[in-house]
Amino acid sequence: MSSNSESLGHLPIDAMSTAAGEATKTDTHGHSHDAHGGHGEHHEEQNFFLKYFWSTDHKIIGMQYLFTGMLMALVGGFTVYVFRMQIAFPGISVPGWGRVTPANYDGLITTHGSVMIFWVAMPVLIAALGNYLIPLMIGCDDMVFPRLNRLSYQIFAISILVLGASFLVKGGAFGGAWTSYPPLSAKAEYNLTPQGAPLWLLAVALEFVAFLLGGINFVTTVMNSRAPGMKMFDVPMVVWMIVIASILFMASVGPLVAGAVMLLFDQTVGTHFFDPNKGGDPILWQHLFWFFGHPEVYVVLLPATGIVAEIITVFSRKKLFAYKTVLYTAVGTGVLSFFVWAHHQFIAGIDPRMANIFSLTTLLISIPVAEMMFVFIATLYGGSIRLTVPMLWALAFIGEFLIGGVTGIFLGASGADIYFHDTYFVIAHFHYTFFPIAFISVFAAVTYWFPKMFGKMMNETFGKLHFWGTIIPFNFIFIPLFLLGVRGDHRRIFDYSRFPDLMKPGMPELRVLATLSLVTLLAFQAIFLLNFFYSLFKGKKADRNPWLANTLEWQTPSPPPHGNFPEGLPTVYRGPYEYSHPDRAQDYWPQNEKAAS
Amino acid sequence: MSETTSTSKTYPLGLSEHGFQYVKIWGLLLGLLVVSVVGPMIGIRWLTLVTAFGIAFVKAFIVATRFMHINLERKFVTYMVAGMLAFMLVMVAGISPDVLKHEGHHWVNKAANDAVDRGEKEGAAHAGEHEGAAEKPEAPAAEHH
Amino acid sequence: MIRPIATTREATGIPTGRLAVWWVIASEIVIFGGLLGSYLMHRLGHPEWAYQSVHTNTAAGAFNTFVLLTSSLFAVLAHDAAEHKDGKKAAKYLMITCLGGLTFLCVKGAEWTHEIREGFTLTSNTFWSFYYTAAGLHGIHVIAGMIIMLFVAADAAKGKELQRVENIGIYWHFVDLVWIFLFPLLYIAK
Ligand code: HEM
Ligand SMILES: [Cu+2]
């Protein structure tokens, strides 16, 4: 973020004039060290630090998460660049890093996986968008616990510092993969990172705490603080999805928190929870991890589908097809996601009878997911589609995610998985799901809500260039990885040139192709950053509702002032997707617009 | 939560009507506590299970309803708590075949079985040293033998 | 600081603070559930742990159950007082609840000291690892509850934020509930 407080100065800071109508209570502590003490732009000396780092305004906190997430995406991108270079060109001195040692390699891969999931996908999809959008979309002035919200971000920031610190300690950063299986992760004599391993665990645990606090805040806010008139089925889909995701997270992460404490004790004080030689059981960790890990993929998937639902309705000017079905499907998927976790452990030595059950449930869960994609396609059908940049991203999400979902079914069949597990097929599968989730849908969201967040329009030409420059290389990275996986190419190998079986004609070439495509993809992200910051400062001014959308966040100034709705908090009269209503001249119908009658 | 219906009746210790109810419930809980401690002393296995764990559930139910007032709360709170508990059941059901059991379809967890044997031997030897605590206490998992 | 309007809304019919406490409890259920579930599975798979569990002190465990149940009584009496708008009395009862928590911790401390002297430490055997981890995690919740309770009591004594008396009470009962299960799991099942 720039330190130029002037150009950001028109951001949400405005008098707290919105209290009109509903009673406000004063907090017991009369003093206010709140960042936006209601002084508007006149107070030039309004401390930059207080304004942007000590704020309790949900919009500022959302942006803190967004910018932090973007920063961490750069970290995740850099790490993958380094280890992919090593994979394609073993032993090369990687520009910007140097020679990659085996320990570097493990640390980089672990960091890449952990960062992308815990410090990019989660904070951006749930924390950033949830914070920014929930109060605006349900028509209230803030989260119900603003200070808890600030605390959540602060804990999150500390978790990053802890993770960063793990690079500096003796032995370097943890290299036991994002799944952190013991005994590798539990014993320093195996992982050789006596301090990196516990620090990694601590960082992840802190991140969980941050998201638990945030999640409780989100859920309580949506349950209690909706605008008058907003009934259950008037809540925009993305809000629903974030709420369901927060609950899923809350319900699944508990056992892993317990497991993390056990693992931390194994690492640091020498207990034997996961040590088979001393009566412990390493499989237990795998179970606890994936009992969280699989619901976690839906924790990030659901908000992404919510974003897509918002965007495709706006840009096809159609009502969301089967709102209630989507909602029930999401809940059903969430519940079902607690029944599939052991499909990650088919070759771990679990009982084959259980493997059968988990195969079955995994095949089952692909039904609701597929259904959701069909619903989106049905929404598009017959609409007047506008291919704006956010719409392109949303459409790409549907197409690319389908590939990920379909390949998941191969892996869910335990017989096939015995071959595919630990090959690049798995890597390709989950990147075809995760990349659409963590990047494609996020680009859709950022380009869609940018005018609201910053009051400026983004540049379309650059946006499209960035879109194609991302989508095309993306497929050129992961289709080769599918092909490699089918040929049995193992994952987690430092130097392929030492494995003649993995160097058969064509295999090294595919690896090089994937790596070069990755470099291309990364290079194109510069266009996004350029567009982002250029538009932020120099972009065309956006009015309230540039996309002619229905949901409440578009019915207030861009960017919204502190308190969100300067004209008074809205009342809701209809659902969020009343586009092209037959009785209306305009093809949209804001949720808070009174019927003419 | 519950509205106070102020009656003119007075209760001991300056307690309110509700307060007096709470004290009675507390007495009930203490009674249950005594049962749950005494029951297992008799040494019948099923009685131990019933008194120790059955009563824990009863106590939990009483605390949840009479102290936390979960039954007066909106229904959804009960569903939420029940849902979380159900997820835990699913978890245990999915993990037990691999962790609780030390053998299954075409597999044996030799390390775990060894740990059991080792522990049995050491325990028996140790119990022999201190006479008095000599008798092997009853294991709740006799099904394994 | 001004409290947002959002906080004062109540679409579910449950005040925001209390609703949040229920969600906290939901997330705690799965944390303890994961730990106790793991313990239970190991315990049933390892009959030899019976040689270890004989050494836990049932009397101390029972006494601590009594202490926590009693502290719960005072928590709910505090809630009753708060409902009668008697902040002073509520604060007094909350302090007694805290005292219960303190007693609990002291007994635990004495128990652990004794056991560690006997050679039963966190690392001596997986039974003991679970024993210390589960009771320790619970103990942390007791401490956290006490700290929050002191703040709530301080406010309540001045007649402020009386609704928080009930909220912290609900949390405290939950901590009590966890112990109700820990007690048979760690002490009675010999
Ligand atoms: C219909 C949908 C899906 C099915 C049927 C499915 C199935 C599977 C299966 C069976 C595996 C285990 C492969 C193995 O390790 O051998 C797997 C791995 C994985 N899946 Fe999916 N999946 C689906 C959707 C998703 C989604 C939406 C995500 C992410 C958001 C995802 C993320 C992952 C990840 C991260 C792994 C790799 C775990 C690892 O080994 O590190 N999957 N998937
Ligand atoms: Cu999975």
Structural class of chain B: mainly alpha
Oligomer: heterotrimer
Euclidean distance between termini CA atoms of chain B: 52 Å
What is the molecular shape of chain C?
elongated
Superfamily (CATH H level) name of chain C = Cytochrome c oxidase, subunit III, four-helix bundle
Measured on Cα atoms, how large is the radius of gyration of chain C? 19 Å
Report the average pLDDT across residues of chain C: 94
Q: How much of the residues of chain C is beta strand, in percent?
A: under 5%
Instruction: Determine the most extensive contact between two protein chains.
Output: B-C, 69 and 58 residues
Number of beta-strand segments of chain C: 0
Q: What is the number of helices of chain C?
A: 7
List the helices and strands of chain C in order.
Answer: HHHHHHH
Descriptive keywords:
heterotrimer, B: 145 residues, mainly alpha, two-stranded antiparallel sheet, 65% helix, 3% strand, flat, disordered N terminus, disordered C terminus, C: 190 residues, Four Helix Bundle (Hemerythrin (Met), subunit A), binds protoporphyrin IX containing FE, binds copper (II) ion
Q: What does this entry look like structurally?
A:
Chain A is mostly helical. Chain A has helices at residues 48-53, 58-88, 102-138, 146-165, 188-191, 196-224, 237-268, 282-316, 323-336, 352-380, 389-412, 414-420, 424-454, 460-486, 507-538; strands at 93-94, 98-99. A two-stranded antiparallel ribbon of chain A has the order 1-2. In chain A, helix 8 packs antiparallel against helix 11 (389-412) and helix 10 (352-380) runs antiparallel to helix 11 (389-412). The radius of gyration of chain A is 24 Å and the shape is globular. With 145 residues, chain B is mostly helical. Chain B has a domain at 1-69. In chain B, a hairpin with a 2-residue loop joins strand 1 and strand 2 (107-108). The termini of chain B are far apart. Residues 1-6 and 131-145 of chain B have low confidence and may be disordered. Chain C is built from 7 helices and no strands. In chain C, helix 2 (16-45) runs antiparallel to helix 6, helix 2 (16-45) packs parallel to helix 7 and helix 4 (58-83) packs antiparallel against helix 5. Chain C has 190 residues and is an all-alpha fold.
